[in-house]
Amino acid sequence: MKESYAQMRKFNCWNISIVHQYGRFKESRIRSAVFGNSRQFFLMCQNDRADLDDMARDIGLTGLATEKRPTRSGEFVANGAKHFSDTV
Predict the structure, then answer these.
(1) Domain span including residue 86
(2) What are the residues whose beta carbons fall under 8 Å from the beta carbon of 44, sequence distance 6 or more?
(3) 57 and 81 belong to one structural domain
(4) What is the pLDDT along the chain (88 residues), one digit of tens a residue?
């Protein structure tokens, strides 16, 4: 997988990865290859603030993108992790 991320970009190909448990992924050997060779990130609601801060540092999110704000339901989420229902 690490080789795939390193090489496929050269050929204008896309690799798509879906990570459900970031805590396990952040200790992975392929994390640097995935983040280093990715141009787009789709983040969903992150329940662990430390994980969100870690991702923000690695992919260059601004403080505004990770700032907490209230949702319609009253819970607080980061701007970069909007719930789908907030966009409707």
Answers:
(1) 41-88
(2) 81
(3) yes
(4) 778 877 887 888 888 888 888 888 888 888 888 888 888 888 887 778 888 888 888 888 887 777 766 666 655 555 544 443 334 3
